[in-house]
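Memo to structure team: turn this sequence into structure tokens by end of day. - J.P.
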Amino acid sequence: MKAVRVVIADDEALVRRALAELISAESGLVLAGEARDANEVIELVSQHQPDVALVDVRMPGGGGPRAASEIKIRAPLTRVVALSAYSDRDTVIEMVRAGAVGYVVKGSPGAEVINAIVRCARGESTLSAEIAGEIVAELSQHLERQDQETDGRRVQINRIRRVLDQGTLSTVFQPIVRLATREMVGVEALSRFPDELSSPEAWFKSAEAVGLQRELEIHAVQAALTYLPSLDDELYLAVNLSPKTLQVWPSVVLEAGAKDRVVLELTEHARIEDYSALEDAIAGARADGARIAVDDVGAGFANLKHILHLAPDFIKLDASLTRDIHNDRSRRALAKALVSFSQELGSTIVAEGIETHEELAALSELGVHYGQGYHFARPGPLPLYLND
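Reply from structure team:
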């Protein structure tokens, strides 16, 4: 049988000497060279094209992963056995990705090292007994997590599909009022789902995770629009839509009588890097007669840049900004700045989440003329009635 030619690489001289003596004492192995770092072993393997390269994971010149990657290119027939004092599975995975087909831990019995070299030379992959169990366990856990994620995803898809197919989504409405007179000027449509234990936000987030965000949002908007004829002609209907969905559904189909009565509230909790596509979609929606609102201003990424690009008809102050505004100077300062900003843009400010008379008074004093919240009415079915 042809002798197996081996190159060893380790930055510790004592380790190299021990390995050299071990290989030289084995009749079926031939020591083809020694190296102290990644650069040396790459050149040595390129020159001698050995059967096996026993490579230290952590050494100068880029370490074992770099050496394994280069050896795989320069000497494709040379099989790399990783050698390390670290038996953690992350090191194993790193070396395997780089091209190693075997792995032994420093300090393993000599017979185990020889066995790993011989088996790799024959084309067999090998791991030391010390870490093989850990790798198998990690693989099993990974597969189990994949199965759980797949099952969970299937449950989410089926749950959302049932709502889409059976039409079990319902719509409630919250009045939007003129603060000075408590006159109702519009309503916001809010979706409700059959599972009362999960919030609407959780449903839409789940839909996004499984690729059904567009379908669920459009379904909710279409369900809300069916109530438009039931509203007084002077009231507008606000519906929530993400910019992502608006971009793939650029035409809001409205009947002639609905023009200027539908407001698209764009909710956004992630940065928009490219506004050009969104601006085109908004232009199409406006051509169909819809108006635009930016929701959640004062929270998330609904920032001034967002507003400048979209030039909305309405700017909606988030409830987190409205809450206790009468007791918080920083909230009042930000709201006042946004009121001034909206006046320059020609936009209308609407405050969300008004719950007390004190909040209402503070917002009115700051120049906010419209709002909604529990102080006026909770979301409910049509027809709507304001609190006394």
